[in-house]
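Data deposition worksheet. Section B asks for the primary sequence of the deposited chain exactly as it was used as input, without tags or linkers unless they were present during the calculation. Section C holds the resulting structure in token form. Section D is free text for depositor observations; keep each observation to a single sentence. Incomplete worksheets are returned to the depositor.
Section A, Depositor: J.P.
Section B:
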Amino acid sequence: MTYCVGMVLDKGLVLMSDTRTNSGVDNISVFRKMFHWSVPGERQITIMTAGNLATTQAVISQLEERNKAPSDRRPSILETPTMFQVATTVGNLLRGVIEGRQEGGMRGEGPRFTASMIVAGQIRDMEPRLFMVYPEGNFIEASFDTPFFQIGETKYGRPIVLRGYDRAMTFEDAVKLLMVSFDSTLKANLSVGLPLDLLVYEADTLKVDKLIHIDESNPYFRMIRSTWGQRLRQVFDSIPEPSWNGDQADLHLPSTASQPQAMNPLSKISAPNG
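Section C:
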């Protein structure tokens, strides 16, 4: 499994993915999940993948036309006029690969060959765009109400992104937020692991200056891992404790003019009736 996040900011795009692939707890490998295509001054396109590795590699191979000699390759996504059409191309390839495996005698194993993808980038004279592509080949685009996408093992890191995301945040704050989200996911799930790939794209530059590979020796990520746990414990310890009074608990919290005055006490749980 894996974990990938793509975010739209006022300033551009921020993408991060892990590199762990596993088949059981004792068969762990490292494979890149982030793929980048660049025509400086004309377009920047990035795809992140999650799901069955053979499926996603087949899609990427077809996009890169690896069945041709290197001198003959001209990936269609480098000529497609819009990012919407790039997402359409990726969706059609993904659906075709999955259907091909099912029709090839693997129908009973169908769910194992599914995958999902995040497509992000910008083409000259257009806005940066972000899409999430489903196994069926259809996709949705990020919007003001849904400004980021996550695929793979999302449940552990999603609450952090939901609480911390701000479209107007700086690239530095966005990277810090993703670092915390990934650290929490790494802590909770063995199927997600280092190294991490990070891409920061500034809107309208049509070039990528920040494409970073983060491993265990990265000093900033090591600081995040140690500091986040410590600070979280400090905040937890600073929260007032409930005081129990007989059969009920009354939370003694300071009241302000903006807070509702009435609070229902916590009911003590006893043995069920009957």
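Section D:
Helices lie at 53-63, 83-106, 158-164, 171-188, 219-238.
The chain has one domain: 3-232.
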